[in-house]
Design goal:
Blueprint: H1 8-38, H2 46-69, H3 73-95, H4 102-125
Helix pairs in contact: 1-2, 1-3, 2-3, 2-4, 3-4
Amino acid sequence: MEQISISPMRVAKVTLLGFAAGVCSAVLLTLLFSALLALGVPDGAIPLFTYLTVFFAAGCGGLCAGMKGKTRGLLFGLCAGIAFFLLHFLSSALFGEITASLLTYLATEVVGGIFGGILGVNLRRS
């Protein structure tokens, strides 16, 4: 197996790519879930849709980061998940309020990013 260097610049580049993919997928998932709500899904499903959106968006970001990184999917997925959480945290600080529920979002986004990163590396190898 070839050894691929892991410079800080490379980590930043791969993380930024995964972050961009995560943001794009978050927008698409938000539009999808908005359409479902408009079709009559009860409003009680909004928290579930929110967690699914952040999990799959961070997972998509981790997947792209893992595929681009070629190795160390856990690291690249973790970085993409943390970057996605930072966006979430900053938007909450600017436009809303910071609550304890942000910790559950942190866990959801980091776990989604890690799963995506590991999956991305393994899909790249096969």
